[in-house]
Amino acid sequence: MINGNLKASYGADERVLNNRNKQMFVYGCLLLLALFPLFADDYAILMACKMGILLIAVVGVNVLTGYTGLVSLGHGAFVAIGAYATVVLSNLFTALPEGVLPFVVVPCAVAISALVGIVVGLPSLRVKGLYLAVATLAASFIVNFLIEQELFAPWTGGVVGINTPVPNLLGWELDTKREMYGLITVLAVLTLLGTQNLFRTRVGRAFIAIRDRDYSAEILGISLLRYKLMSFAISAAFCGLSGALFAYFYARILPEQFELDLSLELVAALIVGGMGRTMGPVFGVFIVLIVPELIKISMGFATGGDLEMQRYTAPVQEIVFGLILVFFLLKEPLGINQITDRILRSANRWPFARG
Amino acid sequence: MLSVSDLHLSFGGIKALQGVSFDVREGEITGVIGPNGAGKTSLFNAISGFYAPSEGTVRFDGSDITGLAPDKRAQLGMARTFQNIALFRGMTVLDNIKLGGHTRLKTGLFSAFRYFGAARAEELELRRDIEERVIDFLEIDHIRKYPITMLPYGLQKRVELARALAMKPRLLMLDEPVAGMNREETADMARFILDVQEQFGTTILLVEHDMHMVMDICSQIVVLNFGQQIAAGTPDEVSQNPAVIEAYLGAAA
Questions:
Q1: Of A20, A320, B39, B140, whose CB has the highest number of CB atoms within 10 Å?
Q2: Which residues span the domain enclosing A68?
Q3: Residue B94: closest CA among A218, A274, A14
């Protein structure tokens, strides 16, 4: 039982971390993130960076699918746009000093992504559900098709991909994964914080209203056109930011990295983690990236590093991962976030009855 | 304040409204009654902008709003509730009511991302306003943190009224506010509606089947039957009207 939890002002009641357990959890996580590079090996840092990059994109999908209720199967394309815009613009703006280049290029890449997001979002005013999903899927095929075209190969590198620049923040070259970890973590935390803030204000509430009952939202003065497109723009912008980090993190990007697989991974992570919840994407990304690694490692132990055996265990890993996803969806259709909510609730009531 | 003239609405061959004309006077409660399928809800949907009438005009405060989108009408000060509760089921009572304040707030996208500063000040002011003006008034302070799905039907109806009141509307349209309620709940709701009119001076237009309540609280009544307006006037006039009696009870044999 938490004592001292009575609120005496509206301000105190409107706080997000409104009790000690939540505060401890969030501040503990932040501390862990800050100390992580001190004890983590290169492999752990690599995984953390991958998670951070994917997280930003999943948060983007969460804004659109989780909060606004518009399903997209094409968000991999926005990651691609962010990544390619970063590389192409970096190669174009060679006149700029290297130290300021990322501060110009990344916002441009994010803006381009957002604009394309608005265009892709236009059908959402007419179609919903599966039909919209197919429309976004088509849009992502078009984006991938354009990137692979010979015509644009001088800029995009075509199907063989293109080398990416090393980010230089005002003279600080982020040429190690450990340095990139810092950048990615800060941006991922800011993205989460921004999203949490968004849904405490009228803008975010309007998104949820559209998801829950669109005609009722209209009667309250919410323009469906404006807010649906805004939601598309925000989610595409986050995916674009994720793409920019993706480009900076890897030495080379290829069109095939941004195909349907990525779009599906984003949606899968969101569903497993919990749609329409701030922390949902965090849990989802954890499951989608860490669980396959754990399965791989444990398979490695089981086979004792026998290469001949590993040929047979490789497909088993995929099957096991698939089964784990199905199990989670059956047990917790609302995602991992539902489990953590339950834990938090019983922690708040402890030592009294759980409920 | 609201003036409907010669409104026609048809869906294919079905004529839902055929020449409905009436005025809603400022500060009064006007009721729309009629047997099932008379076109009451169609009339409401045409007034709030979901259906485009094939003929006729809707004027609000003297300006023609016939072709205006629903969200623009909300900005003019029109609020409504729905016959089968249209609350946002994924949110708490408080968030639902806060949405009523949407058009009055100004927070833009970028200050929303920051939250601290202007957006927070505005949110706290909204919270204070709805707590003191709406939640207290409708006596729903005990359920403000509850998710909508946990509430009984009668309370959901009251929360929907609260959400409409949070808009500070000048015209409040209630589509069957006491449908499916027992006598006690009906009496409560009737009291709230009268209080709204009295305290805030809100003009009210309501559709209702409960004759007792309509006769008790409305000062003007419009009667529809098969999409046609068969009578209009004070409760006394309407209840004496032979066409109304025939519509409800059938013609004398």
A1: B39
A2: 40-349
A3: A14
